[in-house]
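Thread: "does anyone have the structure for this chain?"

Original post by V.I.:
We have the sequence but no experimental structure in hand. Need at least a predicted one for the grant figures.
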Amino acid sequence: MTMHAVRKQILQILKEEGDATVAELAKALEMAPVSVRHHLDLLQGDNLIAVDRVRRKGSVGRPQQVYGLTPEANEYFPDNFAGLAGKLVLQMKEYLPAEQVDQAFAAIARQIAEELPVDELPDAELSTRLAAVADFLNERGYLSRWEQVVGENGGAYFLLHKHNCPYASVSQEHSEICCMDQKLVDELVGTHCERVQSMRDEERCCTYRVAAESAANASIAPIELVFTS
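Reply from O.Q.:
Generated one for you, tokens below.
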């Protein structure tokens, strides 16, 4: 993410110090307070900082606002989650039998799927269910959408697209991540969905085909996860 150098410095100062006033930031940046306030206003508008509290020196004078980082600001600081996740998957595959690795990823998919309150949609039409699934996936960074398609024979079916993979840097090396996502989609939709294209195969998105007659509340038969290298 690109950001103005001064605003990036402000975030770094707040990260190191915990919080700071306009005067303290102006001193650290060697800038006029009015200029600092301009950058603070922009950072507040982006929900990256917030006024944590008010500080008063003595019994006279105006109280000073103390600024701190919001949780959203953490996205602007480096992390190595992908590297750590990749190493964890590698260690799982090295020390666990293949069957246990499969079970572990299937369990992760089920655990994530349980966060969708499907009990509120037991009798919903499939289109309503897919809309809820797409929203659920979007909250987790998948850039998902769905559409209804009419085939050449007049039969209708649905397509669920995922335009982003939050685990792309790991899934390229470990196909287990793609199989976990397959299981996740199946659990969320309520039936097995055929993956017709995959970003791992250099397609522009992962797409799942859902038969129009699929019942949203159908029970899912056990799915055999087959991992390919």
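V.I.: this helps a lot. DSSP finds eight helices and seven strands in the chain.
O.Q.: and The helical segments are 5-17, 22-29, 33-45, 81-95, 98-113, 126-138, 168-171, 176-189.
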